[in-house]
Structure prediction request, 212 residues.
Amino acid sequence: MKPFLKWAGGKYRLTERIKSVLPQGSRLIEPFVGSGAVFLNTNYSANLLADSNPDLINLFRFLQKEGQGFIQFCSQLFTPENNTETAFYELRDEFNKTNDLRKKAALFVYLNRHCFNGLCRYNSKGGFNVPYGKYSKPALPEKEMFYFHEKAQHAIFEVADFKSTMNKAQPGDVVYCDPPYVPLSATSSFTSYAKGGFGLDEQHAPPRALER
Ligand SMILES: C[S@@+](CC[C@H](N)C(=O)[O-])C[C@H]1O[C@@H](n2cnc3c(N)ncnc32)[C@H](O)[C@@H]1O
Prediction:
């Protein structure tokens, strides 16, 4: 099943190949879960799914808990009136200002489908800053969201840096790591899934769990 979020570096098209090399295990750990393509297309009985992006994990938790009720709530944002440049920037502003986590989670789905290429990028103050995508009729991926909700009943979602997630690995766990790509050059980097980014130091960082 396709993830319900568009996500840079998402591995949906590679899931069959990835599955063919993943071993059996008691629990899947994904320190860089992103859209969850691998989790959604495997069947581990337990899943520890983490990412450093708090907006992503906040959304996953609402969908996990509420399912159809939350999907219905999101659907109110998917109207022709909300698919204009003016409405997009107003709703993006609301996303950046609100303290209502449920509204923020729904707006994150809206932004993902209405912004340019479904990118997720933040400015230095942590504000989401991807421009309007100009799609003719963005649709709420209801079927994919409900599938995610059902699978998520066997998952724990955490906002965490990958090093702390790696340190939770136990014998018998399967760890699938999909970090941001190494930028090809200083100017070509797309590493802004969350405030702070992911640079060369993180690419080289030896997680303590792997040093044992
Ligand atoms: C290539 S994407 C993962 C894509 C995912 N496998 C999928 O199929 O959608 C990399 C992810 O790493 C997350 N990330 C970046 N820096 C991180 C860090 N220091 N610790 C944990 N996650 C991080 C990003 O938010 C992004 O979701």
